[in-house]
């Protein structure tokens, strides 16, 4: 007479998880009992991969790191699906029951991986995986002036006069308390009118 186990496969997994959690909690408890408690400012500061922590933690974070995280997550989840497929469908009993079972499961997995690879190639060709860099390009304009004329104009050095802003521009409606200093510069606000066509 065959004896059957009172514990199902899920029960074994549940016991394994409970033992894992208890082992971690026991390790933390032993660490609390044995570890010396001597806090200092260096121990209480946040750890940033060996760098000296400075400034506020609310900083601008480059959103391009999220793209890398999503690509990692995509292939990580793909491996999570492939591992049980490989362990279940490689069982000899299933292959002996029907010889086409192995080929069917292999084609099914090729379709699954193929869909993910098509998505990856699409995103790659679209340029979403590139670390965004400004592209260097020469501006174009419909002008008939050659580019060498612009280049010569930009390379030319110009003589500038020093500007001294030591006078107050009168604002309409403001009463002057003292006479403005005459500096030879216009003491008015220019108003420009559009030319009539």
Mean pLDDT: 78
In total, how many beta strands? 0
CATH architecture of the domain at 9-126: Up-down Bundle
Overall structural class, as computed from helix and strand content, comes to: mainly alpha
Report the biggest beta sheet as strand number plus sense, adding barrel if it closes.
none
* CA distance, first residue to last residue: 110 Å
- Computed CA radius of gyration, to the nearest angstrom: 37 Å
Beta content comes to under 5%
SSE order: HHHHHH
The helix count comes to 6
Shape: elongated
CATH topology of the domain at 9-126: Methane Monooxygenase Hydroxylase, Chain G, domain 1
The helicity comes to: 40-55%
Poorly predicted spans: none
Task: Give the class-level CATH name of the domain at 9-126.
Answer: Mainly Alpha
Task: Jot down its keywords.
single chain; 197 residues; mainly alpha; Methane Monooxygenase Hydroxylase, Chain G, domain 1
């Amino acid at each position: 007479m065959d004896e059957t186990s009172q514990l199902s496969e899920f029960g074994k997994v549940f016991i394994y998880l409970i033992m894992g959690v208890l082992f971690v909690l026991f390790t933390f408890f032993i660490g609390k009992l044995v570890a010396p408690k001597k806090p200092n400012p260096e121990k209480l500061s946040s750890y940033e991969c060996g760098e000296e922590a400075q400034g506020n933690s609310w900083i601008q974070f480059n959103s391009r790191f999220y793209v890398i995280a999503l690509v990692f997550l995509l292939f990580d989840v793909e491996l999570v699906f492939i591992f049980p497929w490989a362990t279940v469908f490689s069982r000899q009993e299933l292959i002996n029951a029907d010889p086409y079972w192995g080929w069917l499961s292999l084609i099914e997995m090729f379709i699954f991986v193929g869909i993910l690879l098509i998505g990856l190639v699409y995103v790659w060709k679209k340029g979403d995986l590139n670390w965004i860099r400004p592209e260097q390009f020469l501006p174009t304009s419909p002008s008939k002036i050659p580019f060498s004329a612009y280049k010569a104009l930009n390379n030319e050095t110009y003589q500038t006069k020093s500007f001294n802003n030591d006078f107050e521009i009168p604002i309409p409606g403001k009463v002057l308390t003292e006479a403005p200093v005459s500096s030879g510069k216009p003491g008015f606000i220019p108003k420009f009118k559009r030319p009539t066509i």
